[in-house]
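User: Could you check the structure of this?
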Amino acid sequence: MTEDAMTFTNKDVVIIGGGVGGISSAVELDKLGIECLILEKTDTLGGHAASLCCKATETCQRCGACLVEDLIHRAGNAAHISTMLNTVVSNAQKTANGWRLDLVANGSEKAVPVDASAVVLATGFSPFDPALKPQFGYGRVPGVSTALELEYRIRADDWDTDVKKLAFIQCVGSRDHRVGNNYCSRVCCAYALRLGRLLKNRFPELDIALFYMDVQSFDRNFDTRLKAAQEDMRMVRAIPSQIRESRNGKPEIIYHGPSDERVVEEFDSVALSVGMTPGQSPRAMGELFGITAGRDGFAAHESSNQGLFLAGTVGGPLSIPESISSGVFAASQVASYVRKTRSGEMA
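Assistant: Sure, the predicted structure tokens are below.
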């Protein structure tokens, strides 16, 4: 249920962020009869995950993309969930009974106050900007995109059938001290391998290479999935030093081979597997709510006795199923806190 900000005076819980973590929290709280309001700064729920494609081949690859649509549907039909889109928090103040938030809708200069017993921060992540790695040619070399953009095209059934040779470049913006991101984003290996298998299943003649440092385990059947992926694509243990435009106007990858020889190889398309970054939201939320950030920039601290909780990737890189679990866990913490405040135990 989407609402007008002017109709609100108070809610049990305000959830800031309408991605997977935030919606999961709301759906779980709805089951418990706890009134909650989801605030989303864009015009749709689901966050980045809502734009991802299903990667099933002959069997499900357990990517979690199908779970997002179900969550959005459940939130839209829930009795105790309200939603405000295109809305941000401009100010937050701790009160004796919880929090008072000032909400501002896009295009409005007027802030509308809302009182809540508890707040869930679920502001998500930002994809790494590949322009910060200019050697990979993003925005300059034809045929170079991010793996997320590749997903969007597949979901929109906009795959270029003229592409006969595709490369994935791993760890773009992750495990890289030169851009200040020393952490592993944890999901990039999984989505590249699943995308590669999906495309190979649909286009058997497609030649796929995956350039990597090492492959991170991502589920219980990792060894089986990795073996299947190795049969579908060429695994190149090297990170390219440069991607430039070839004489044919295509991406040309320069890398060092197994004997440290210089290799130059042309592809039709290159997908950069960009990692997760905290973006601006954690810093902004930190200023509003006093949340501290860890060395990786993601939110590192929550103060449950103040009615403030974290859900989803605001706290660090997570897969879709992990974000759902995080949201459910946050909801259990919130429910316990709200019950105590209702009974006066927090006084």
